[in-house]
Amino acid sequence: MPSSPNTYDVGLLSAAQAAATSAAMAQQVQAQQAQVQAQVQAQVQAQAQPAAAAKSKPRRRRADGNGNLTVEQKRRICEKHRSTPKITQKDLCRWAKLEFNLQRAPTQPTMSNILKHEHLFKDNVLGVLGSQRKTIRPTRHAHFDQVLANWVMERQNKGNITGDMIKTKGRELVKQMGLEGKLGFSNGWLASFKARHGLMKRTNNVQSDKAGSAALAGKDGAAYGGILDANNGMLPNGLSVDPNYMLPPVSMDLTLEQIQEMLRDYVPSDIYTVDETGLFFRASPNKLVQGDEAQTMLADEARLTVLLAVNADASDLMEPYIIGNVVPPKNIKMASISQLGYHYVCSSKARMTVFIFQQWLRDFNARMASAHRNVVLLMDNAPSHVMGCVALSNVRVVMFAPHLGMKVQPMRGGIVTSFKGKYRLKHLTLAIDHLEDGLSDIYRVTQIQAMSWIVDAWQQTSKEIIVNAWKPLGVSVPFTLDSNMDGSDDKNVEEELWGLLYCLQLSGVVNTKVLVNSRWENDIHKRLNEDMIEDPQENDAEFHVPEVGGVDQGGVHGGDHMSADDEHPGVQPLTAKEQLKSFRDVIRYLERTGTADSRDPQLMSVIDFLKKKQLSLRFDNASNSSLTI
């Protein structure tokens, strides 16, 4: 039945009211949602305001006004502290501000932290591609990295080394060293490797000295290997005042007259020489003087290679650069050079490599640059003396021709012999101490003891011998030798060595001249194709410092030696054995009272006096003894 008109109208009215109610409710819900969103947004903004305020503040820069100090600046700070030990940290902060043109001086805590971590910077003299780096990132598989870098550096003067050749050699070394799957040889790895070691693209042309001294340059271009950048054939360097200025490249095959002419432009204090020598630091004298069979006898002997550098007036005996094959413990790694008196690095078989030599050469150049000095450095044309990519701003290198170096190299003019004589005196003295203490291995000495003796022996090397060694090159020191340069101490070294050998019953067996110049110690440079992939091992025993005094377990039974005790009735005279032990204990104690650079000269005179008396007593005791060592 159809609805009436009234019924239809009421239905329409109910539907309209429902629609209106729904719309109102929807609007109310939307309003509530908007209100909630507004509240949430307000809370978020309230929380973000402090962070925004913090971000709006200008970021506080470090002391240099441009961010962190670079690694090179930190290294130079450590170098300044090393060369000026009495400088305070506050003065060092002021020096850094002026030296590096900083907006603000570094803070004292910053300076303290830099000096505390000197060990991180002393081996990181960066190449030209890394002079602005601000952090030192530890290299994974550092020994592999060093072996590969050394391979590249050895071949820099042999021809072009491409990136693919480096990758291929890297993959070969990975297999040999058991590192498969641990390294990827991508283009990114190659770029990092080349930047880390300052390897640059080679070209075939070389620009000679700016002054055009072609006569003195000789074969400079060929010797330097033509390693250039795109800036007019010059080698840039971050240490130079002008990064485009470089000293002339290395000079080779110069005549003696040409070298003498060159050296006239330098004062004696700016003329340096460098050389390396091997040291079987605990070998018995018998082994060192043997004939061809000594090579077999010394094959397993512990050895060190020592790099020595000094200038012509003997005013700068640089810290010995010692190479061993034992990884040092953490306390040695973290110690500063000023604390140790030497610089220690590891190498397989304790040999000098191109990698280590270039590391030393960069450090030497950086030290001269820090001191604003321009010097000349003379050296032999040894297998490890490859210049490669080393860009020098303050050091001119002269390599002796082989026939000339044998005659005029100052290190071979008595300097190394004097140094070794001082070392052998210390070693043989300890051997007699051990003999008198009743020890079986009388020549036993730890590596850290030997390195300490190396420092002392180098500092005690006669300055007169150093100065005289330069005379064949026409270099003379324009001042009178002082009392410390009379050479009297070195004149007695051979006699003292003979006396110690006599006490060891070896005076008729060992020639003292051979003892300080054993030909078996001259094999110190890595050969081009020599395998050196063995990773140096840790051996904490080599870095153990023995206690003062020895254990008396019997010893040399010599006759009684007359003493002052005999003049006092009722006092039992000391036997020769007891007298020798008293000398040993007193001398050992006095030698431990200070470091080599801080001992009182009067104390050193007392020690020298006691040692002479001790040697005299030992000599008398050996004369009455039938013991054969």
TrEMBL record:
GO terms for cellular component: nucleus. Signal peptide: none annotated. Residues 132-203 form the HTH CENPB-type domain. InterPro entries: CenT-Element_Derived, DDE_SF_endonuclease_dom, Homeodomain-like_sf, HTH_CenpB_DNA-bd_dom. Keywords: DNA-binding. The keyword Aminoacyl-tRNA synthetase does not apply. It holds the Pfam family DDE_1. Residues 49-72 are annotated as: Disordered. The keyword DNA-binding applies. GO terms for molecular function: DNA binding. Gene3D superfamilies: Homeodomain-like. This is Unnamed protein product. The lineage of its organism: Eukaryota, Sar, Stramenopiles, Oomycota, Peronosporomycetes.
